[in-house]
């Protein structure tokens, strides 16, 4: 595999794990706010990010490309509201979408079809990722300051698989 493309995928492994760490930080915030449903939702999100990193790890291994693992930055656990958390999450996913699209374009430019096809899963996944944060934001905006409705949302978030 092309060295530059390999380096970019290795960097994306780090970014996916960092994403997981960010969502774990959000889960920690919710635990502190006694919102166990939202904490569960974010822990599941963190697990999904680790799965994304592992898909890339396995792909590099299968291609016989070197795997390099860098340090992961520490995330914040401080937020000012439930809505603020999900808005920050959506913003982060939009950033990740940009990284995935850039990676996909690099694979196409290198005519590395196997990598391009592999990355298509992530291109599609990013649509879902943005949508799941976006839907939570829409519901939270409807809920506004209603404590009862927020409680119900927390209970519903606990059922995320
Ligand atoms: Fe791995 Fe949330 O994108």
Q: How would you describe the overall organization of this protein?
A:
The chain is mainly α. The protein has one domain (3-65, 77-157): Ferritin. Helix content is 80%, strand content 0%. The chain has five helices and no strands. Helix 1 packs antiparallel against helix 2. The longest helix has 31 residues, at 113-143. The relative contact order is 0.16. It binds MU-OXO-diiron. Residues 16, 19, 49, 52, 93, 96, 129 line the site of MU-OXO-diiron.
Quick overview of this protein structure:
The chain is an all-alpha fold and 161 residues long. The chain has helices at 3-32, 36-63, 82-109, 113-143, 147-157.
SSE inventory with pairings:
Elements: H1 3-32, H2 36-63, H3 82-109, H4 113-143, H5 147-157
Helix pairs in contact: 1-2, 1-3, 2-5, 3-4
MU-OXO-diiron is lined by residues 16, 19, 49, 52, 93, 96, 129.
User: What small molecules are bound in this structure?
Assistant: MU-OXO-diiron
* Gyration radius, in Å: 17 Å
Q: If you average the pLDDT, what whole number results?
A: 97
Counting structural domains, the number is 1
What CATH architecture do you see?
Up-down Bundle
Gap from first CA to last CA: 36 Å
Strand content: under 5%
Features:
5 helices; Ferritin; binds MU-OXO-diiron; 0% strand; single chain; 161 residues; mainly alpha; elongated
């Amino acid at each position: 595999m092309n060295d530059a493309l390999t380096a970019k995928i290795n960097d994306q492994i780090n970014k996916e794990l960092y994403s997981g760490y960010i969502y774990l930080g959000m889960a920690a915030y919710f635990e502190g706010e006694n919102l166990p449903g939202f904490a569960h939702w974010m822990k599941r999100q963190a697990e999904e990010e680790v799965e994304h990193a592992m898909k890339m790890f396995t792909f590099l291994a299968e291609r016989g490309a070197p795997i390099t693992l860098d340090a992961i930055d520490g995330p914040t656990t401080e937020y000012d509201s439930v809505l603020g958390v999900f808005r920050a999450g959506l913003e982060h996913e939009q950033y990740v979408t940009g990284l995935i699209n850039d990676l996909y374009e690099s694979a196409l430019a290198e005519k590395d079809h196997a990598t391009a096809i592999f990355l298509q899963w992530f291109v599609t996944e990013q649509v879902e990722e943005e949508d799941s944060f976006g839907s939570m934001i829409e519901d939270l905006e409807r809920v506004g300051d209603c404590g009862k409705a927020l409680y119900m949302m927390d209970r519903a978030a606990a059922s995320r698989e």
